[in-house]
Amino acid sequence: MSKNFRGVLLLTGAAIIWGFAFVAQRQGAEDIPPFTFTAVRGSLGALVLTVTWLVKSGIEKKKGSFSREKTAASLKGGLIAGSFMCAATNLQQIALGTVSAGKSGFLTALYIVIVPVLGFIFMKRRVKLKVWLAVLIALASLYLITGADLSGMESGDIFLIGCAFMFALQILTLSVVSPGADPVLITAVEFVLTSAVSSVPALLFESVSPGAFSEALIPILYTGILSSAVAYGLQTAGQALAEPEPASIAMSLESVFAAIGGALILGESMTVTELAGCALMFLAVLLSG
User: How far apart are CA 279 and CA 189, in angstroms?
Assistant: First the structure.
């Protein structure tokens, strides 16, 4: 089994968890304001990951394999990637207050097209002709997903497009900093930063009753432990093995599982036009690989 394939398998596992996380986030958005939800899930993810890293580093110190250089690189990489992840997760959570889980998954999957384009601009990575074709198809899919009326594009749609850009930057950052770094520590730092930054607007502008937290307990636990600690850990480990393009393709499968989860659990449905747009988006995802 090649290193790249092992990475893709890890990232596919993350995509499955993230796909159903759209359902949990959609349910959580009904009871908890966006910044508060992101801060709480981030805190839970950070706690699990930090404890995991402390245990892991303690074992490494006993074995004499602990590396201060690796730790320093992981801290720096986590701060950079975490700044993009913080922006992405908050934009996504705000949008999920009004946009369905299925539609959100496909709009977020725009990062699959954005990753190679930004890689070409900032990292001088070669972009194949089929990727540029995928960009055009993705733009057409956006037109359909938003109801074939760009003038009627909702704020949630715009937030999700911004979310896709931020996730693309996070993916590219991890492709650079993950090899040779500690995936657990990088992910822990990402969530510490996300939680800390999100807590500021949450405390200043939002208020939540204890009853609301009780109602949203399952979504918080799912997104905090599985979607945050487990799935993002899989992402960091997977990206240390896989190239950015196949990595983003594997992760974009979250859009399919988001649509499945939205239909099965929330009873969501889309118009024929929106479904056609999702089909085009999926085609763009496959083509860009």
Answer: 36
Q: Please give the Cα distance from 153 to 226 (Å, whole number).
A: 32
Tokens of 129: 């002709």
User: pLDDT averaged over consecutive 10-residue blocks of the chain (289 residues)?
Assistant: 81 90 92 95 94 91 87 94 96 92 83 83 77 76 66 81 94 87 91 97 93 92 91 86 76 80 83 79 68
What gap in Å lies between CA 244 and CA 177, rounded to an integer?
A: 12
Nearest to 185 by CA among 42, 52, 44: 52
Angstrom distance (rounded) from CA 162 to CA 15: 20
Count of all residues that appear for the chain in the document: 289
Instruction: Give DSSP secondary structure letters for the chain.
Output: --HHHHHHHHHHHHHHHHHHHHHHHHHHTTTS-HHHHHHHHHHHHHHHHHHHHHHHHHHHHHHT---HHHHHHHHHHHHHHHHHHHHHHHHHHHHTTTS-HHHHHHHHTTHHHHHHHHHHHHH-----HHHHHHHHHHHHHHHHHTTS-GGG--HHHHHHHHHHHHHHHHHHHHHHHSTTS-HHHHHHHHHHHHHHHHHHHHHHH----HHHHHHTHHHHHIIIIIIIIIIHHHHHHHHTTS-HHHHHHHHTTHHHHHHHHHHHHS-----HHHHHHHHHHHHHHHHH-
CA angle, 85 then 213 then 206, to 5°: 65
What is Dmax (Cα atoms) for the chain? 61
Cα-based angle 66, 41, 164 (whole degrees, multiple of 5) = 90
Tokens 């760009």 label which residue? 150
Q: How far apart are CA 82 and CA 185, in angstroms?
A: 12
Q: Indicate the pTM of the whole model.
A: 0.84
Confidence at residue 288, expressed as pLDDT on a 0 to 100 scale: 59
